[in-house]
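Contributing: when you submit paired examples, paste them exactly as shown. First protein:
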Amino acid sequence: MKKVFALLFIFSLHLNAQQTSASKDSISVFYGKLFSALKKEYLYKDKTDWKVVEAETNKNLLQYENFKESLKEVAVLFGKIEATHCKVFYQDKGYSVPVKFLPENFSDQWKAKYASKPAFEAKVIDGKYAYILIPAITFSDVSSKNIHKIAQPLYDKIAALKTQNNIEGWIIDLRFNTGGNIYPMLLALYDLLGDDNVWGTLDINKKQIGTIELSGGKYIDNSSKVSYIDPKGVLLDKAKVAVITGSLTASSGEVTAMAFKGRPNAIFIGEQTMGMTTSNSMRSLPYGATLVLSIAYDCDRNGVFYEHIVPDIAISKKDNLDDLLSDENIQEAIKFIDKK
């Protein structure tokens, strides 16, 4: 009996050793692939001392007993290389440099609306102004079919405003747009952007390497059709548009604002945006993980880069989401629209 117990105990130790070894191996494999992707395509790859960063990371990784725990090190690594717009997704959880959120920098109205996880809105206020709230839009299936499925209902709500009302001007609220997928955001706004280049990408030397355009309801990235909406009625690409931004407007929220830079009859109101104006691409990593990797700078239709979107009219903590006509951002937007 003692002999059997001893054998079971030895077998148990051996099995645990195998599991620990497997966990350590998976950590090594994963970070090896992660570093390979970063060193090959990361926008600031040539500004990073990879030998030092990799050595420090590998030393830190020795403290972790399993792969999932080791993902805590991703934020540390990204912080060292200033990859504040990069992210690793694993089992529906994201790992990145934390965004600093100081409650005192936001109004009570903003915090209450943000906590409610606002959805897309398209409505008329005061009988003649169209109000469109575009929040963060995130999803994993980026097939053309799925993008169209998401974008078309958003576009249809905006198109209904133009066909069913006598709209004098348009207000696009991006205060709650912390990022996500740019495709449905810009496709939804097709009527207001029209058939034109709407943004682009720049290399590390700020030389333009990519152009994104809308044409006939199609989203075209460097001549390749990504997805589309079925447009209805006339374009509104000369109509007055006020774009409202906030300090947490980020990433694709900033690109949405940027798409109106260089467009006639557009004004920017609110707060300076977060400053995540790098273009990201998705890369596969081991064990079903995904890397969102910054590979270029974002630019407007004229090739101009913005570290932040700075409003023409600065307004902070004057939100009133319960009564939009009492919201100072909206009030300034209406003044712009009413001005002859």
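Second protein:
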Amino acid sequence: MTESLSPELEAVVARAAAAAPAFAATAPESRARAIVAVADALEAHKNDLVQIGMRETGLTEVRLTGEVTRTAVQLRLFADTLVDGGYLDARIDPADTAFALGVRPDIRRTHLPVGPVINFSASNFPFAFSVMGGDSAAILAAGCPLIVKAHSGHPELSDATAAVATAALHTAGMPEGTFQLIHGREAGVAVLQDRRIKAGAFTGSIAVGRLLADIAASRPAPIPFYGELGSVNPVFITADAVTERASEIATGFLTSVSGSAGQLCTKPGFVFVPAGTGLPAAIQEATGELAEHRLLDPRIARSFDERRTEILAAPGVTALIPGGIRFDTDGHGWATPTVVAVSLDDFRANAAALVEEAFGPLSIIVETPADTDLAALMPEFYEGNLTGTLHHSTAEATGTTANAPELRALVAALAQQVGRVLFNGWSTGVAVTPAQQHGGPWPATTNDASTSVGTAAISRFMRPVAYQNAPQAFLPDALQDTNPAGIPQHISPAGESQSWGARWRSEA
């Protein structure tokens, strides 16, 4: 027994460790059927689960119902991904006596599951980034036993979701210990520190994410830790775009800021727009009746109230939409959106009070002088973000307008500091699709080479292994000449090395 674990946690980790070889060895088709069974079961229990989620989180029935559907789609996407096998990146270099550097042995490389993984679930997505959310789907698809640390904001929903998933996986014949749920921050930390745990995943705040990442890195044997943390998702809007469709931009902006009470990691926190445009007025005109929305829990509500007060008190800040927050007798906060405006000079002078993320329905309009170097604003204020957005006019889309070089430089700068660059859209609403990238440089994530949405997410929970001169009988299916699973294989034929680089040789 590991001394740092209670008997209950020891049993959980021991089951996961014992299940690892058997689960990794399951046929891709069997694992896919099990994951799809979980997706089907979640949808079958949707009504009951949504009712629990509404009570615990304050999120709407429409939002939560759609999130169950999204969660099921994620699971089904990963089922197809693991059967396709492209994520294994199977590479075969046959033995080559004519190799350019001497005789080449037969070398074959693929990816194997890392082993048991702990996933710390999120508060703001009680389905899509929680017990059976995107990280969990990727972990199970990779063939890794999964331990989920439930979020304290929705414990009853976590238990109910876990019960549905456990039953589906058991019926599908998956090994005992394939999936388990634990509660409590201390329990999560203890499991993360256990030598049998081979990776960690997290969605939440910068402070907690950094703490867990440091724990994972400071273990005697450090392990990968994939955390999605904070993001302010800057938006840049050209003057011509405002002239062309100010009302449309204002409406889209308000919808994005107020959706789910602004408690989304992709909420547009800052909008940079040339001074003197009609956007601030268009935003005020588009306000209408903005209903108040309950924040997820009292702690988040108090933090938002403090952050909102700090921003409104900063010199040079003007409230376009004052918004507000009230607290009920249970301590829950009910907020309406707040939108403020500030000049670039005042923004720079008070950056310490303004640049930090406000987790809730608040956004800042920064009005920039005509000669502002937009590309330089990103590294000036931000290390990294999940998204960056450019709203441009129809003419500017051709790349032939006078400001085209400036816009190309801005897009290049965004691509260096975000994981997803959007054009004429809004960052809330992350499409669950193979090419999606949901990640970015610190502090958006702890590892900017990874994504938590899209089929590339599975690679986080696998590690590469090469086999040299291995008999066919000892090779994984992915590397066998017969290729029984029919997965993509990249083969470098013998003799090929003699012509490497030849096409680039100068004729002179």
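If you have annotations for the second protein, write them as plain sentences, like these:
The chain has 15 helices and 19 strands.
Residues 235-423 form a domain with the Aldehyde Dehydrogenase; Chain A, domain 2 fold (CATH 3.40.309.10).
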